[in-house]
Structures are given as structure tokens and as C-alpha cells.
Design goal:
By secondary structure, the chain is an alpha/beta fold. The protein contains eight helices and 13 strands. The chain binds NADP nicotinamide-adenine-dinucleotide phosphate (NAP).
């Protein structure tokens, strides 16, 4: 897939590459490779599916040539009965199912502000912004993350968080966009990083037919908010690097773009977004 900033006609390699594996003796998989590091390399992620094409495991690139893995388990009726929060292990992502031992898993819960939300919260609190975090499982489940981020972070319900903030970041799956609190986000600027990801059983006809862009779809729900499309082109490995604490020997910075960006730039971008109409780019 070629995105508008890397036109095929201009000789660019694809922005995103998908490889599909349908197998009878091993899990089915989708390998997603996203261009990163200024267009020089691809970040790789594998999503493994069980025989009923339910997402079973996601493997993404992690630090030090390792990988980050998250699991979902189902009961006989197809209900999700357990998920493993993302844990780190050695080796590159592959299409083979990784079977964790107890010691591989950092936390076993059904919650957590996601990969992108975590990365932005980390990079926003460093230069002095205050953040209010929320997820679908309630503020109590974010206590560890709030403690890690320090006194500039607090957790709340989605409606409370939307009311509290000057600038919103809708770091939720596109499939959940209609649950974003419309009234509380009314009149506010909301960053939309959502991608139309391929999940079995999830499709939006208006997007499949190119009738709407994903941001227009979100804007239809958040009709009274100013939408800003940004961060959607960040790959999982960049998000992972951004969510890590800064290295002690260097000044705080965001390496999301592949080029060190001063952490204060995040503040400026946030201020621009609040001040200006939709259209700023990160
Ligand atoms: N990760 C990336 O590399 C990346 C890069 C660019 C763009 N994106 C886009 O950013 C969005 C988030 O991605 P992610 O990887 O961070 O996803 P993720 O790890 O699955 O996290 C999603 C978060 O959304 C929360 N959530 C879901 N429904 C919600 C609701 N109704 N109200 C409040 N919170 C809700 C979840 O909370 P619970 O855990 O409590 O359900 C979870 O904290 C997606 O649309 C994705 O396409 C991701």
C-alpha cells in the first residue's frame, strides 16, 4: 500500500506491506511491515489467528532485537477469557506461536492504556504537560501507569477525561470510535491517530468504498470537535521506544520520528493544535 507521502509513481517502495499466511498446520497470520526511520527500513508486526480466524497473538518489534508479545485466549463459546498484557522476549517477531511461561509475562490483566496512548502520555508529561488518562476498564486499572508517569498524570473515566482536557487524543481502535464521548469533546481539538486496521469481521462499507476517509468517519461522530489527523503513521516499534523512560545520559526527547525531537516540540504542537484549525502535521 502506498500512502500519499510515498507515491508509487515516484518510485517509492510501499508505505505498508501486508503478507497473508493461511495454513492448516500452524496459525494463520498477517505480517504488517510499515516504513519507518525516514523511509529506510520497515518495522514488522505479526498478528497470528486461530483456526476460526480470531486474533490469538500479536508480535511486534521491541528493543534490543527482541519482540513484544500480547496474547488472547478464548473459551469454547468464543468468549475472551484471558489476555496477557504485552510482555518482552528475545528474538524477532515470527509467524510461529510463542508459548509463554509464567516468568515471561509482566502483567496479566484485561486493561491498560494502549501502546500509542502510553507513548504520548510519556512524551507529554516530560516537558510539563498534564495528562488525564482513560481506558475502557476504568481509572482504577490505570493506577500503575499513573504512578509511573508521576504527578502530572491522573486517571479518570472517558467522559471525565474528555471534559478535563484542552486537547484530546483518541488513541482507541477505530472500531470503538462511536464510544468516544461526543458531548464532552464538543468544541475541543481532538487528535485522531486511528487506522482502519484489518480485523476479521470488522469492516466499514463507507471506508471500503472510499466514500469516506477514516477521519471523516470519526468527524461524523465527533461532529462538534476539530479533528486533527496525526500520529497514525507511527509504527509499533516507534511507539515502544517513545513509551520508554528517557535515557539518563541524554536530554528528554521524542525519537518517534526517527530524528530526535525536543520534548518541548510536543508542547508546541499541542498548543498549535489547540489554537489552530485542523490541518497541522506531526
Ligand atoms: N500502536 C501503534 O503502533 C499505532 C501507531 C499508529 C496509530 N495507531 C492507532 O492508534 C489507536 C490505538 O492503538 P494502540 O496500539 O494504542 O491500541 P491498543 O494498545 O489496543 O489500546 C487501545 C486503548 O484504547 C482503549 N479503549 C478502547 N475502547 C475504549 C473506549 N470506548 N473508551 C476509552 N478507551 C477505550 C483500550 O482500553 P482497554 O484496554 O481498557 O480496553 C486501550 O487502552 C488505533 O486506532 C491504532 O490504529 C497505533
Amino acid at each position: 500500500m502506498w500512502l500519499p507521502d510515498r507515491l508509487k509513481a515516484s518510485g517509492f517502495s510501499p508505505s505498508i506491506k501486508y503478507t497473508y499466511g493461511i495454513r492448516t498446520t500452524a496459525p494463520n497470520y498477517i505480517r504488517t511491515e510499515k516504513i519507518e526511520n525516514g523511509g529506510t527500513t520497515y518495522g514488522t508486526e505479526y498478528t497470528l489467528y486461530d483456526g476460526l480466524l480470531r486474533p490469538r497473538q500479536v508480535q511486534t518489534e521491541g528493543a534490543k532485537d527482541g519482540r513484544l508479545i500480547a496474547d488472547t485466549y478464548y473459551d469454547g463459546s468464543g468468549r475472551v477469557v484471558k489476555t496477557n498484557d504485552t510482555y518482552y522476549t528475545t528474538g524477532a517477531p515470527t509467524s510461529a506461536l510463542f508459548e509463554p511461561k509464567g516468568t515471561d509475562i509482566d502483567g496479566q490483566t484485561v486493561t491498560g492504556t494502549g501502546m500509542l496512548g502510553r507513548a504520548v502520555a510519556r512524551r507529554a508529561t516530560e516537558p510539563g504537560l498534564y495528562v488525564v488518562l482513560c481506558n475502557s476498564h476504568g481509572p482504577g486499572t490505570l493506577a500503575d501507569l499513573v504512578a509511573e508517569l508521576g504527578d502530572r498524570a491522573r486517571a479518570a473515566t472517558p467522559a471525565e477525561a474528555a471534559s478535563a482536557g484542552d486537547l484530546g487524543l483518541a488513541a482507541v481502535p477505530l472500531a470503538s470510535h462511536e464510544r468516544l464521548p461526543r458531548a464532552e469533546l464538543s468544541g475541543k481539538t481532538v487528535i485522531d491517530p486511528m487506522n482502519y486496521a484489518l480485523y476479521p469481521g470488522f469492516s466499514i462499507p463507507e471506508l471500503d468504498s472510499n466514500e469516506l476517509t477514516s477521519s471523516e468517519l470519526v468527524q461524523r461522530h465527533l461532529a462538534d470537535s476539530r479533528m486533527v489527523k496525526a500520529l497514525h503513521n507511527y509504527g509499533p516499534s516507534r511507539c515502544w521506544r517513545c513509551s520508554a523512560p528517557p535515557e539518563p545520559t541524554t536530554a528528554p526527547h521524542c525519537r518517534c520520528t526517527g530524528i530526535p525531537v525536543p520534548a518541548t516540540r510536543i508542547t508546541e504542537l499541542a498548543a498549535d493544535a489547540v489554537r489552530g484549525p485542523a490541518g497541522f502535521r506531526m
